[in-house]
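Email to the structure team, subject: Pyrroline-5-carboxylate reductase model.

Hi all, the expression group asked for a predicted structure before they design truncation constructs. Nothing fancy, just the C-alpha cells so they can compare against earlier work. One-line instruction: predict Pyrroline-5-carboxylate reductase, return C-alpha cells.
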Amino acid sequence: MPESLPSLAFLGAGSMGGAILRGVVAAGIPVDGGIVATNRTAARAAELDGLDGVRSVALEREPDGNARAAAEARVLLVGVKPGMVPALLREIAPHVREDAIVISLAAGVTIDTFSSILGDRVAVLRSMPNTPSHVGKGVTGLAAGPAAGPEELGIARRLFETVGTVIEVPEERIDALSTISGSGPAYVYLLIEELTRAAMDQGFDEADARRMTEGTFIGAAALLEAMGEDPAELRRRVTSPKGTTERAIAVLQAAGLQGIFRDATSAALARARELAAESAASPDPA
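Reply from the structure team: attached below.
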C-alpha cells in the first residue's frame, strides 16, 4: 500500500486544484483525516460531490469554510487566483495549524508574500503544475521556502507525483519553469492550430486536417516517451538528406524559430514577475 498523506484542504478547488485533488483520489493514496475542498459557489462545489473521501464545501453556504478547513487540515493547497491570495491568507492566518504545510498553486505569488501574512515559521512551498495534470501527465515545479524541511518537501512531492512528474527548483527558478512547462501546453496547441490551417491550405477539409495534425503530435510525443531518445536524434531520423522534411525544417530555422521561443518565454517571465509585484503590493485592509 502506498505511503499515506496527511489531511488535505484545497482552498479554491478550481481547474488546477481540482485536477490535483482528482489525481490523489485516483491514485488511491490513503489520506489520514480526509480531504476538504472549497469553492465559492454551490454549482462548483457540486462538481466534486461523490469523490471518495472528499468533503466539498460551497462558501456561499458556509462562509467560514476556508477558516474551518485551515484549522482541520495539515496540508493546505491555495488554488485561488493570484490577486485573491493575500485576502485568503489573511482570512485563514489565525486558524492555520502549527504543523501546517501551505502549498501555493498561484502563479507569480512569492513565498515571502505567504510568510509575511502567515508568519515565517509556517512551512510554505510554491508549486507550478501544468494542465496535463488533468490526465496524469503533468509536470510540476516545486520550490520550498525556508521553513519547509525534507519532510514537508517529501509530502508535497508525493502529492504532486499523483498527477505526473515533479521537478524541484529554487524559488528564483520557479517563474522561469512556468514559462516552459506551465505555459508550454498553449505553445503546443498553437502549433497544432497553425499546422491544421496549413493542412487546410493544402486542400484537406477541417476534419481530416485536425485528425492528421493532432494524431501526428500525439504520436510523436508517445514515440518520444517510448524510445527515450534525444528529440534531436528522432528529428534527424525523419529528416532524410535533401528530402522534403529537410526543406521544411530549413524554412522554420530561417524564420528564427529559436529566437521566437526565446522571446516568447522571456515575455512570459516578465509577466510572472509583474504578478509577483502586484501580489506583494496588495494592501492590508484597515
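The chain has two domains: 8-171, 184-255. The longest strand covers residues 138-144. Ping us if the truncation boundaries need rechecking.
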